[in-house]
Design brief:
By secondary structure, the protein is of the alpha+beta class. It has a single domain, classed as 2-Layer Sandwich (hypothetical protein PF0899 fold), CATH 3.30.2320. It is built from 2 helices and 6 strands, in the order H-E-H-E-E-E-E-E. A 3-stranded mixed beta sheet has the order 2-1-6, covered by helices on one side. A 3-stranded antiparallel beta sheet has the order 4-3-5, with no helix packed on it. It starts with a helix and ends with a strand.
Length: 118
Amino acid sequence: MHEVDMTRCLLLSLAEWRDSQSSAPQEVRTVHLDVGEFTCVEPDALFTTYAAAVGGTWLERSSLKINSIPLVGRCPCCDSTYTPTVTQQYRSPCCSAPLEDILSGRELRIRRIESAPI
């Protein structure tokens, strides 16, 4: 369950963000994440580990909002852009070439932090 490690990294990033703020202390309300399909992150597991990790901390009243980024590939053989699937073994639907170029779906980043003065 790599969601636990991801949550730890997320909390470290949020602490760095908090420490970098030059204005009055901020209360984090919502953390918006972009999570690619190909990261194999289970959103429910991430919500659960986040809720458990922030209990009793300065992030206790915050929540996560996850924006799922689809897996999109490009075939270098036929130059088609497609959505790879497990049933196709991630191969190009046009020429059956294996997936080589991933255009999106590996993202795991904080897109936005909603906050308000305390």
